[in-house]
Design brief:
heterodimer; A: alpha/beta; B: MetI-like fold; globular
Chain lengths: 268, 234
């Protein structure tokens, strides 16, 4: 999307090695190992509190792991350093943060942080707003848009940066079906323009629609990482099987005072 | 009671007749306070934002100190500025004592902590909302500072307004460093103090009315401008 990012060296794959994250004495991510290769849509699923958002933030560098390493293995990382790596990523949050500026101003602001030339800026803003259906709202204040429009603007803002990898943290959690549909369409368009997608959701339908491969996270552990077909047809992990069948995963204090996962079978 | 009524009507006719002395005093008051608040905003807003955004050793101490300075007694500020600017003081050579400039300096010292402390609170709240998004876009605290000052503009107006309220209403500091000299450093508050002790209640009351009307008018105007702006920009 941005001319100057074409032919940049790649920063992917991304490797997480023995990554743990602790906060207030609680281990929220536990010894996680995984590798993200280029050109797939990865969907991270799992119940609330599984550590999905934390995992995205660790990957994106918003928080640092308590132990282990998050490593970008591509040539771009070796040749151009940390700033370059940070600039090749973008993230869309569950609740979009809109600046008190116009719709176009929000996109322009993001571009100004990436040192995009002023002459190029307008064309890029025009293109992303066109493709996210927001061009008629060019001058509208961003904060008074509807939830769906704000999320589309957040996507447009990320898209304008033409990142190599885009993290999305439950981008449709607060949206109705039609807004969800347009957000998913935009995500797919972003992917087609050459951006690697990593998305978290607890919406199984969305996972089925969007995933090329699936990571199943539970209580801070990566329990399964498989291609989408395999995962949905023949999940290996029993908790993943239960999750796919729509059963509620919950926890009960065991006798030894450790929390054990239990399955709450749905009556059929 | 009749005294009060008489003073009141005399005050009103004084205000209505646009008395020259009155205009001069009001004009100087506004000049001193507006310049002081402008300078204090230029210093206080970035300082407050910096304290909110940057993590440095002693940050808590600075925050507590800023908040404490909000309640700085004007007479003490006046005394300090007096000592600094007096002939034998370190800045005595500039000959600023008993001039409007000295009054502006005193009010800047008085108002800057207020604006900085209020701005710190506003910016800190904004930063907790924006931090992840801005860092994700590639902005550290340095780039975020002007961004947040701009995004918090509607709330920051209140901080500046609080500063203006303080500056226009205080009497202790300007009395000491200005000296309340007729036609030179006489402002509304010092005149009121003087005229009351002289027994000229009409002028004192007239100025008092203007002072109240001014602060009411400014606050009302800002309130509505802010409401309209917030409705427009969210």
């Amino acid at each position: 999307m941005i001319a100057h990012t074409r032919n940049e060296p790649r920063i992917l794959p991304l490797a997480l090695e023995n990554v743990s994250f602790e906060a207030r004495g609680m281990k929220l991510i536990k010894d996680l190992n995984c590798r993200f290769e280029a050109d797939l849509r990865t969907v991270i699923i799992g119940p609330n509190g599984a550590g999905k958002s934390l995992l995205l933030r660790l990957c994106h560098g918003l928080i640092s792991p308590s132990a282990g390493t998050v490593r970008w293995c591509g040539p771009g990382s070796r040749e151009k350093g940390a700033r370059f790596v940070a600039h090749r990523q973008a993230m869309v949050f569950q609740r979009p943060v809109m600046l008190r500026r116009s719709v176009a101003g929000n996109v322009e602001y993001a571009l100004s942080l990436r040192d995009v030339k002023r002459e190029e800026t307008r064309a890029i803003v025009d293109r992303v707003l066109q493709r996210t259906g927001l061009r008629r709202l060019w001058d509208s204040p961003a904060r008074v848009l509807s939830g769906g429009e704000q999320q589309r603007l957040a996507l447009a803002r990320a898209w304008a940066l033409s990142p190599e990898i885009l993290f999305l943290d439950e981008p449709t959690a607060n949206l109705d079906p039609s807004a969800t549909h347009s957000v998913e369409e935009i995500i797919n368009a972003i992917r087609e323009s050459g951006t690697r997608i990593i998305l978290t959701t607890h919406d199984l339908g969305q996972a089925r629609r969007m995933a090329d491969d699936v990571m199943f996270l539970h209580r801070g552990r990566l329990l399964e990482h498989a291609p989408a077909d395999t995962f949905f047809e023949t999940p290996q992990n029993d908790l993943a099987q239960a999750f796919i069948r729509g059963e509620l995963l919950w926890w009960k204090k065991g006798k030894d005072n450790r929390r054990q996962p239990h399955l709450n079978k749905r009556k059929e | 009671m009749t005294d009060l009524a008489a003073a009141f009507s005399a005050a009103l006719s004084l205000v209505a007749s646009f008395d020259d002395t009155l205009i001069e005093i009001v004009g100087l008051s506004l000049h001193v306070s507006l310049v002081a608040v402008t300078v204090a905003s230029l210093i206080g807003l970035p300082v407050g934002a910096a304290v909110a955004l940057f993590r440095f050793p002693g940050r808590t101490v600075v925050t507590v100190f800023l908040n404490a300075l909000m309640g700085l007694p004007p007479v003490v500020v006046g005394l300090i500025v007096y000592l600094l600017l007096s002939r034998s003081g370190p800045f005595g050579v500039f000959g600023l004592l008993f001039s409007p400039a000295a009054m502006i300096i005193a009010q800047v010292l008085l108002v800057t902590p207020i604006i900085a402390a209020l701005a710190r609170q506003v910016i800190e709240d904004l930063w907790s909302e924006y931090e992840e998004q801005l860092r994700s876009l590639g902005s550290g605290p340095m780039r975020a500072l002007p961004t947040l000052l701009w995004d918090g503009r509607f709330s920051l107006v209140t901080a500046v307004l609080a500063g203006f309220g303080r500056a226009s209403a205080e009497v202790g500091a300007v009395m000491i460093v200005g000296g309340n000299i007729d036609h030179v450093t006489r402002v509304m508050t010092t005149t009121i103090a003087l005229e009351v002790s002289k027994g000229d209640l009409a002028l004192a009351l007239g100025l008092g009315l203007i002072l109240i009307a001014l602060s009411l008018g400014v606050n009302t105007a800002v309130f509505f401008v802010r409401q309209i702006a917030e409705r427009r920009y969210g």
